[in-house]
Amino acid sequence: MALVVLDGAAKTYGAGGLAVHALRPTELSIPAGQFVVLLGPSGSGKTTFLDLVGGIERPSSGRLVVDGSDLATLGPEELTRYRREEVGFVFQFFNLVPTLTALENVELMAELVGRGDASRAALEEVGLGDRLDHFPGALSGGEQQRVAIARALVKQPRLLLCDEPTGSLDLDTGRQVLELLQAAAREDRTVIVVTHNSAIAEAADRVVRLRSGAVVSDERNAEPVPASEVDW
Amino acid sequence: MRRDVRARRGQFAAVVVTIFLGLALFALSYDAYANLKASYQRVFDITHFADFTASGGDTTAILAAGRALPGVSTAYERRIADVAVRVGDHKLLGRLVGLPAGEQPPVDGVIVLKGTYLSPDRGDGVLVEKHMAGHFGLRPGDRLEALGAAGWRPVVVLGEAASAEYLWPAPSRQEILASQDDFGVLFVPDPLLDELPPPSVTSQVLFTYAPGADRAALDARLGETARQQGAVDAFTQADQPSNAALSEDINGFGEMAVMFPILFLGAAAMATYILLTRLVLSQQAQVGLLLANGFGRGTVFRHYLSFGLSAALAGAIPGLVVGIVLARFVTRLYTDAVSVPIHIIQFHPTTVIVGLVFAVVVGALSTLAPAMRAARLAPAAAMRGQIGSGHGGRSLLERILPPLRSLPTRWKMVLRGVGRNRRRSLSTVLGIVLAATLILASWGMLDTTTTLLQRQFVDIQRQDAEAYFAGAGGAGATAASATRDVAAVAAVPGVARAEALADVPAAIRSSSGMYRTQLQAYEPGTQLHGFFVAGRGRVSPPTTGLYLGSSLRDLLDLSVGDEVAVELSSLGTTIRERVAGFVDEPMGTFAYLSLPQLRSALGPGAPEPVNAASVKFSPGADGAAVRARIAGLPEVAAVVDSRALYTAAQSFMGLFYAFVGLMVVLGAVMALALIYTTMSANISERLTELASLRAAGMGRRQLTLLVSSENLLLTVIGIVPGLVIGYYAAAAFMASFSSDLFSFDLALRPWTPALVALALIAAALLSQWPVLRAVDRIDIAVVVRERST
User: Fold this and answer.
1) Do A81 and B697 touch (CB under 8 A)?
2) Contacts 24+ apart (CB under 8 A), B718-722
3) Which DSSP symbol is given to B587?
4) Any idea where the domains of chain A sit in the sequence?
5) Do A99 and B693 touch (CB under 8 A)?
6) Which residue of chain B has the CA closest to A98?
């Protein structure tokens, strides 16, 4: 059964002659536990897609249903609760709080949903059990991104949304991050990754290509490549 | 730069406003100070205000000796008298100053404001001093009476005059506050003084110095001459009662002209530093790009330096203009209030020059470090954003109080946010300290004055009035007559209690010097005067020995047990007494004895010292009516209404409240500007992480609470040292006004520091509002994708 359903959902900025159709009316369904990569050049609408599914933006028209709730009808407080309980975000530049340790960065999010005790385990799952008390300034880029993933996963969201998660990382570190995302998907979590990097698409279950705000192709990967074998 | 200013217009405006206030207050204080000094000096110059005055003793010898001194340009002898004066039915103490009729004296002349000067053809014609004329509505042609040797002597008002000696109409240095109901000054033809009781008439010698003369040396020489020739009083121009009182006020303006710029420009400097540092950090990628493409480091440096200078000038120029305009208004207001007859309002180029220099120096110094940092950026690292801000580490509070480590993580984030950028936090704390100092020093002045007035007029001076006897000092004055006079006063309806009082001029002499004051002797067990000795609180009236005002401890280098000589010129003798204690009294520096002790020291056959009665009215009595009944007694020459003095002093409190209110507002504005600038910089540095928290599902209210808490914590950290420093600043400020005339020991009311803290917290909360609105409206989708700087 589909977890995420876009039923003509679209996003337009501005009006009249100055309107920008960041995402044109889109029909798409994503089941739970699927690893989806959104590919496309700048301005293709992939980031807008992510923001709509993540509840950061609201569709200008159409419906966007996640687990039975139409996000287009939710108010600001409801969207905040949706993001808190259902969504985990991972960004290109990690966005960690520099004055908190790795453990505390994860705890900060975990305490939002009453799972502060799970923070240590979340960091151990991403291989940072020995870096709990390190501040972001003392962590490498890859380690910071793994903290960000642990921070996103500790809430046990049903959706993990990642915007260029390997964009600031080298190949080996990027592979480690990709492995974690694949593992998250195997835990019946829907993972959606936005990227320019077409090589990452090989690791996905499904690749959706966008151009000029519209889906131009939607392909299934019969045999996703393990993250360790992805090369760019 | 215009774009940078527009992008940060709120913070730029905060800096500009702070500089504006600092320079406006500087210009206002400095110009008012200069104008008032010039106005007073003009009066002194026109009237040839005496540089030195000696009263009593061998005035002929003093005159001759003084004339012979190099540097003395004029020496002049005149007479004054203190007698009862009657305006209609109202009796008051009159100071009659003898002047030559037909021409102004060479020293201590008068400015005739209405009517005509004294005429040789009008032996009964007098000039009324401006304050007395205004209070009683006296005009040329009106009649009043002076109590002569042969009874009430009618005189006619020829005109109204102002004198440098009575711009502040004080009877003496110890009686700085005098009700105009009780004391007035008349300028009379000298021959009229021959008709007054001789003991009431005193000869004076007045001196003026030549330009360039060594004033200090002449003061010392004439002072010694006066002492040797038995003068009962001698004072320099600076110590002349009116000049001494008014100088305190003018010097206050002078001090404010220094204090305000320091406080406000200091706060502005910190705000500018914070603003520029943040600006440089946020633009480091662009700066790196410019440097990589060949822009000179000097260009970068000048660009950022010009930002600070622009803010400084944008605030300084309008601030100076407003301050200079307001100074004219304040000068006029003040000279009218004090009845200075000449208003000099001038443009002082120094004000503009000094003000602009202040502003430019502050603008340059505060931007120097950030501008240099920008110019020194390594282009490659700057473009890659490797030069970050903020660093990890537990907060000081967590290290001091380990239990804080168990706080929920979001509150640990708040604690650590305070130390995230230490220089910025320190600047903010210093700004709060400055604001707290300004507010507490001002409020402390109000508290102190209110408390001390209460102490002086309720705890110490417990009488409602003092009645001075007509027969005092005369040949017929005896203990018995004094007792009858007191009884007559006590018998007046509405009088609950009347006690005998001796209130006579005295010179206290120790091995270290001499001090002229009044000796007051009370009945044993007096209920109408409270004695408060430092370190002992309220004590009984003296039974043996002398109580002296606490200023004399240092002025005459005295300790308890020391013996002093007390010269009682009006009683024609000197007594010797031991110091029994030093009394803390806010106003004046007096000497106290018990009446039996005084009589014993004077010895048998000595003149009767009792010359007045201390009076307490019955509860609910009509004070004015009782006073009038007492004044109507033939035994009474004059009545001094103590309650009227208290009322007069309290009437000045309205000005104080306005001043304090203004300082509270200005201090709050200063705090507001600084906190707003700091908070804006804090938020702009952390927008990405704040947006990430919103994206992760942290609620708006929770986020703004955390951000707000961090800034309030910083405010509270600043309030604590601010109150401590403010307390000592207030004490020092009050002490700067202390002299033998007024003793201003800081007396803060217990709730004042709490109110100051609340005012600053309120300013902090208010200053956060625009920034918290910005946090509320973060465009999450955009900001989460930006790189932190």
Assistant:
1) yes
2) B718/B428, B718/B429, B718/B430, B718/B431, B718/B432, B718/B433, B718/B436, B718/B760, B719/B432, B719/B436, B719/B756, B719/B757, B719/B760, B719/B761, B721/B429, B721/B433, B722/B432, B722/B433, B722/B434, B722/B435, B722/B436, B722/B437, B722/B440, B722/B760
3) B
4) 2-229
5) no
6) B392
DSSP B349-388: HHHHHHHHHHHHHHHHHHHHHHHHHHHT--HHHHHHT-S-
Q: How far is B409 from chain A (nearest CA, A)?
A: 5
Q: Give the integer Cα–Cα distance in Å for B383 and B311.
A: 28
Percentage with pLDDT > 70 across chain B: 97
CATH of A2-229, one of 3.40.50.300, 3.40.109.10, 3.40.50.150, 1.10.443.10: 3.40.50.300
Question: What is the per-residue pLDDT across A75-102, written as a single tens digit (0 to 9) for each?
Answer: 989 999 999 999 999 988 888 998 999 9
Q: Do A97 and B695 count as a contact with CB atoms less than 8 A apart?
A: no
Which residues does A contribute to its contact with B (CB < 8 Å)? 47, 51, 54, 56-57, 76-77, 80-85, 87-89, 91-93, 95-101, 104, 107-109, 111-113, 116, 135-138, 151-152, 155, 163
What average pLDDT does chain B have?
Answer: 88
Under the phi-then-psi rule, with left for phi > 0, alpha for psi from -120 to 50, and beta for the rest, what region is A149? alpha
Confidence of residue B390 (pLDDT cuts 50, 70, 90): low
- Tell me how far the alpha carbon of residue A88 is from its chain's centroid: 7
Contacts of A199 (CB under 8 A, 6+ apart): A230, A231, A232
Rounded Cα distance, B22 and B26, in Å: 6
Beta strands at B495-510 and B612-617: parallel, antiparallel or unpaired: antiparallel
SS3 track for B11-57: HHHHHHHHHHHHHHHHHHHHHHHHHHHHHHHHHHHHHCCCCEEEECC
Q: Give the ipTM.
A: 0.91
Place of tokens 């200079």: B324
Share of chain A above pLDDT 70, in %: 100
The distance from CA B191 to its chain's CA centroid, rounded to whole angstroms, is: 41
Q: Do A91 and B781 touch (CB under 8 A)?
A: no
pLDDT at B675: 81
Which residue of B389, B413, B784 is the best one to mutate when testing the A interface, meaning the one whose CB has the most A CBs within 10 A? Answer: B784
What is the C-alpha to C-alpha distance for residues B379 and B424, in angstroms, rounded to an integer?
A: 24
pLDDT at B384 over 70: no
Examine the pLDDT at B98 and tell me if it is beyond 70: yes
The minimal CB distance from A97 to the residues B689, B691, B694 is found for: B689
Cβ pair A98:B390 closer than 8 A: yes
Residue B347 in contact with residue B249, Cβ under 8 Å?
A: no
Is A99 in Cβ contact with B420 (below 8 Å)? yes
Of B744 and B496, the one with more pLDDT: B496
Half-sphere exposure of B35 (CA within 13 A, CB side): 28
Query: Is the entire prediction scored with pTM above 0.90?
Result: no
Task: Return d(Cα A227, Cα A165) in angstroms, integer.
Answer: 13
How much is the average pLDDT of B377-395? Answer: 69
Out of A80, A109, A135, the one facing B392 most closely (by C-beta) is A135
Token readout for A46 is: 């992939």
pLDDT digits (tens, 9 = 90+) for B427-476: 888 888 888 888 888 888 888 888 888 889 899 999 999 999 987 766 67
Say whether A80 and B700 touch across the interface (CB within 8 A): yes
Token pair recorded at residue B533? 């000795």
Q: Which residues contact B452 (CB under 8 A, 6 or more apart)?
A: B586, B587, B743, B744, B745, B747
- Lowest-pLDDT choice from A17-21, A173-177, B523-527, B666-670: B666-670
